[in-house]
Amino acid sequence: MLQSVEDAVRSNSQIAMGIFQTGCLALAQLTGELGPPETWRAKATAEDLSISRACIRGLLRDWSREGEPERNAAHGPILRALRQEFGHVGGKTLVRILVPGAGLGRLLHSISNLGLSVEGADVSYHTLLTCLYLFGANSPPCRHTLYPWALSFSNHISRHHQLRGVMMPDLHLPGPVGVGMDMSQATGGTEQQIVFVRGGFVETYQASSQAGKFSALVTCYFIDTAPNFLDYVETAWNCLEPGGIWINIGPLLWNVEENGPAGKGEGDLDEQEAWKARAGAEEQTPVPAALELTGDEVLQLLGAKGFTVEQSEKSGKPSTYVGNPSSMLRYIYDMAFWVARKPRRTVKL
Hey, what domains does the chain have and what are their CATH numbers? Predict the structure, then answer.
């Protein structure tokens, strides 16, 4: 059994090494210091290991066929709303979509396939380097067998479930598509962009330079990472153009909440990794949450700011988040879905 686990870990390490080497090349080009990958090595912290394991799980969700049910549950309503809003717009490449907490980039890829330009932001270097490996390598990444549950020893009926492998990526990604985090793709003679930015949502997009820059803001399993949701509302208002829309889907597991997979005292430790990653735990100083709102209160705050809530509903079927369908322990989320619009003309009182 232990030999099988070691073989699975080695397979995962091949993917990790590809990400590492791609990152080294990119960093070397940015700094002008060309050198062997060993020059970038350092001792990994416990948080590094946690987020790296979350990236392995994220690859399952974003870039394997087995992750398709979760993607359809979360990404489907978002993509339908974008088609409804921009499907008949001419010059789609001029439409700019912002996705904070972009993770490993599958949602960005799907939005780009609609013909729209999209910018994703994340606080984690781990996720951005993984995206660089997937989107910006000198050649498309080879398909690898990924073992997402290899290091999880709890709640398995069968060892086969722990050591089940999946193939990733599940589709062909073109390469190369640029150096750095600005990745442009030629589409019908126009320039369509996928841009990756490292940074927090509030810190990056509350700046005056970002005012009115985006036609739509997309938050997927993201708003409950806010220590104070009011800051997210203010930032959304700032970065959206007049008439722009905010599309949201996800649960409300606020940052300090001790229940569910983020809790300190329940469940399988491995089930906590994905939540830690999307919350950017390694980058944030713990701050007591100012607000832990209900879904109704979230919508009331949007209205108080000036947004018009045009749709508000449950997204459909409940869903896991980076869930193991064979596990004896699964967390199921009823996701709230809403679309809010910034008015086309702001009335000054």
Answer: 2-341 (3.40.50.150)
What does the angle CA 23 – CA 21 – CA 203 come to, to the nearest 5 degrees?
15
Nearest to 221 by CA among 13, 78, 114: 78
111 three-class SS = helix
Facing residues of 248 across strands?
A: 219, 338
Residue 30 tokens read as: 């940015």
Q: Which residues of 147-161 are buried (b: 16+ CB within 10 A; e: fewer)?
A: bbbbbbeebbeeeeb
DSSP codes joined into one string, 61-83? HHHSGGGHHHHHHHHHHHHHHHH
| In contact, 144 and 56? CB cutoff 8 Å | no
- Cis? peptide before 176, omega within 30° of 0: yes
Region of residue 219 (left: phi > 0; alpha: psi -120 to 50; beta: else): beta
Q: Is 220 helix (H, G, I), strand (E, B) or coil?
A: strand
Per residue in 279-297, pLDDT tens?
554 455 555 546 789 999 9
Instruction: State the DSSP H helix or E strand holding residue 50, giving kind and residue range, or none if neither.
Output: helix 46-63
Torsion-angle region of residue 52: left (phi > 0), alpha (psi -120 to 50) or beta?
alpha
284-294 exposure pattern, b = at least 16 Cβ within 10 A, e = fewer: eeeeebeeebe
The token pair that represents 46 in the structure block: 């416990």
pLDDT digits (tens, 9 = 90+) for 143-202: 899 999 999 999 999 999 999 999 999 988 765 443 334 444 433 334 558 898 999 999
Query: Per this entry, what is the length of the chain?
Result: 349
C-alpha–C-alpha distance, residues 178 and 340, integer Å: 34
d(CA 106, CA 118): 12
Quick one: which of 229, 217, 219, 218 has its CA closest to 255? 229
Flag the least confident range among 97-101, 199-203, 210-214, 276-280: 276-280
Strands 117-122 and 96-100: parallel
pLDDT greater than 80 at residue 85: yes
**Closest Cα to residue 247, out of 286, 273, 217, 281?**
217
Query: Tokens 């722009």 label which residue?
Result: 244
Angle value at C-alpha 92, between 242 and 311, nearest 5 degrees: 50
